[in-house]
Design a protein that fits this description.
Layout (H helix, E strand, L loop, with lengths): L1 E5 L9 H14 L5 E7 L12 E5 L1 E3 L8 E3 L4 H10 L3 E4 L4 H13 L3 E5 L3 H9 L3 H15 L3 E4 L2 H9 L7 E2 L13 H8 L10 E5 L8 H13 L5 E5 L5 H10 L6 E5 L4 H10 L2 E4 L8 H8 L3 E5 L15 E3 L3 H11 L3 H14 L4 H20 L10 H18 L5 H21 L2
Parallel strand pairs: 1-2, 1-6, 2-3, 6-7, 7-8, 8-9, 10-11, 10-13, 11-12, 13-14, 14-15
Antiparallel strand pairs: 4-5
Helix pairs in contact: 1-14, 2-15, 3-15, 4-5, 7-10, 8-12, 11-13, 15-16
Length: about 450
C-alpha cells in the first residue's frame, strides 16, 4: 500500500505525536510492498533529506506565542495537493485535527482514498491555553470535532482518550490503537548509565525519582514538587530529575527554590539523544507521572522498557493496564498521596525493582508491534472501501468548501503567469471563507 501520513509537527519538532509519525513512516517504509510520504507544515531551517521517504513541507505561520514551538500550516496549496495525489495514496492517515486533517479531506476529494484520524492529545486543553474559555474556544472545538467526524475511521490511543473525544461532542465510533515505544526492552549497560549521569549529583543508595516530558503545570508537575517538599520536610533524602523543557519551567524552578529543595532537584533540560534518555531511565528507581492530561503516556512505557515502574493517577489514561503494586503504582491526585506512597515503597527498593520488572514484562509495547496492528487495520479499511462497506456519513457544509478549494487550488497551480500578489489574495480569501464556514458548520 501507499500510505500518506499527515501531522502538524515533525522533526525537528520533538513531541509524542511527531515521534509516532516518524515510527509509522520508518517501519512501513521498510516493507517491500509499501511506500510512505509525509506532509507537515514548514519549520525554519528544517532538513528532511535524511529520511528514507519523501517529506513534503508546506507554508506555515509561527503560532508559538499561542502554543510554544508549533506552527500552523497553510494546507490549501495546489502544488502540494497535486504532488500528494500523484503519489497515489491507498490510505491517508492524519494525526492532528487542524491543518493536517483539512489537507487529508482535500486530498481525499482528489484521490478517493479513505481518511484515518488518530486522536492523540486532549486538544481542548491547548485551545484553552491559547484563547481562554468562552465563545472562541467553543467554536474552535466545534470546528475540530467537525473535522474529525468527516474522517472515515477514528482511532484513539486509549479508552480515556475516546471518552475525552466524546465529551467534546464526537458521536461516531472509534478504534483503540495503542502507540508503542522505540526503546528496546532491557536496561542500558553500566558504562552507558555512568556516561549519562556522571555530571549529576546522584549518590549511591539514595532513591532517584524521574519525570520526562514537557515542563507544563497541566502535566501534574506541581504535585511532584509539592510531594518533594513534603518528603524533605519529613527528613527523607532523595534526588528528583526533571528531563524536558516547557513554558512553565521557570515557574517550577521558582517553586523548587522557594521550597528549599534545590539541592535535591535536578533540571536537565531537553535530552534528544535516545540512548542517553534510556540510560537515565535505567538509573532511576521510580518514574513519577501524575498527569491527567496525557491520553496515553508513551513515557510510561519507555520507563517500563527499562524496568522502571511508574506512579500514576487513579482513572487517568496513563494508568490503563496498570495493577497497583504489581506493574506500577496508582494513587489519588494529591502531593500527600504521592509522598505517602514513596515513603512506604522506598523502604524496600528490591520490591520496587520487582514491580519495574513486571512493568517491562507486561506493559511494554514496541513500535514494530504497534505499527503492524495499524497496518493490518489499513488493509481492512481498504477492503471495506473496495467492497463498498465504508459507512456513508452525513455531508458537512465544509465538505463543499473543501471541494471548491481543491478545484480552485488546482486551477491556480496551472496559471503560472498570474502575479504572486494575486495568488496570495485569492488564497487569502479562500482561507477566510473556510474559517467562516467552519465557525457556522452544524
Amino acid at each position: 500500500m501507499n500510505i500518506c501520513l499527515l501531522n502538524d509537527s515533525f522533526p525537528p519538532v520533538i513531541d509524542g505525536v511527531a515521534n509516532t509519525v516518524v515510527n509509522y513512516a520508518d517501519i512501513i517504509q521498510k516493507r517491500d510492498d509499501s511506500r510512505v510520504i509525509v506532509a507537515t507544515p514548514r519549520y525554519p531551517d528544517a532538513d528532511y533529506t535524511g529520511h528514507p521517504y519523501k517529506v513534503l513541507d508546506y507554508p506555515s505561520l509561527d503560532t508559538s506565542r499561542f502554543i510554544s514551538g508549533y506552527r500552523a500550516g497553510y494546507s490549501l496549496s495546489g502544488s502540494l495537493i497535486n504532488e500528494l495525489s500523484e503519489f497515489g495514496p491507498d490510505i491517508i492517515h492524519t494525526h492532528c485535527p487542524a491543518s493536517s486533517t483539512l489537507l487529508a479531506r482535500t486530498l481525499q476529494y482528489e484521490t478517493g482514498a479513505p481518511v484515518v484520524f488518530t486522536y492523540h492529545t486532549k486538544f481542548d486543553v491547548d485551545i484553552t491555553r491559547a484563547v481562554g474559555d468562552g465563545f472562541l474556544k467553543k467554536e474552535t472545538i466545534k470546528a475540530m470535532v467537525s473535522n474529525i467526524s468527516a474522517c472515515d475511521e477514528v482511532w484513539v490511543v486509549s479508552e480515556g482518550a475516546g471518552e475525552n473525544l466524546r465529551s467534546l461532542g464526537f458521536e461516531g465510533n472509534y478504534q483503540v490503537m495503542l502507540n508503542g515505544v522505540d526503546f528496546e526492552r532491557g536496561c542500558s549497560s553500566k558504562e552507558q548509565v555512568y556516561e549519562a549521569v556522571k555530571d549529576y549529583d546522584l549518590p549511591a543508595g539514595i532513591p532517584v525519582f524521574l519525570f520526562v516530558g514537557r515542563i507544563m503545570e497541566y502535566k501534574g508537575i506541581p504535585v511532584i514538587v509539592d510531594c518533594m517538599k513534603l518528603l524533605a520536610r519529613d527528613g527523607m533524602d532523595f534526588r528528583m530529575m526533571f528531563v524536558g523543557g516547557g513554558l512553565d519551567l521557570e515557574k517550577i524552578k521558582a517553586s523548587v527554590e522557594e521550597g528549599g529543595i534545590s539541592d535535591k532537584v535536578i533540571f536537565t533540560g531537553p535530552i534528544h539523544d535516545r540512548e542517553v534518555l534510556r540510560a537515565i531511565n535505567t538509573r532511576a528507581d521510580i518514574f513519577l507521572f501524575p498527569s491527567t492530561y496525557d491520553t496515553n503516556g508513551i513515557v510510561v512505557r519507555e520507563a517500563a522498557a527499562c524496568g522502571l515502574a511508574s506512579v500514576l493517577i487513579r482513572d487517568s489514561c496513563a494508568a490503563e493496564g496498570i495493577t497497583h503494586a504489581r506493574n506500577g503504582y496508582i494513587i489519588d491526585n494529591s502531593p500527600e498521596a504521592m509522598a505517602a506512597l514513596l515513603k512506604e515503597v522506598c523502604n524496600d527498593m528490591d520490591a520496587v525493582h520487582e514491580v519495574g520488572q513486571k512493568a517491562m514484562d507486561e506493559i511494554y509495547l514496541s513500535w514494530e508491534d504497534s505499527v503492524a496492528r495499524a497496518y493490518n487495520r489499513y488493509e481492512i479499511i481498504r477492503e471495506m472501501l473496495e467492497d463498498g462497506l465504508l459507512i456513508k456519513r452525513r455531508k458537512h457544509k465544509s465538505d463543499y468548501l473543501i471541494q471548491t478549494a481543491a478545484e480552485v487550488a488546482e486551477r491556480l497551480n496551472k496559471i503560472i503567469s498570474v502575479p504572486r500578489n494575486i495568488h496570495s489574495t485569492i488564497h487569502g480569501n479562500i482561507t477566510r471563507l473556510y474559517e467562516g464556514m467552519m465557525q457556522n458548520d452544524e
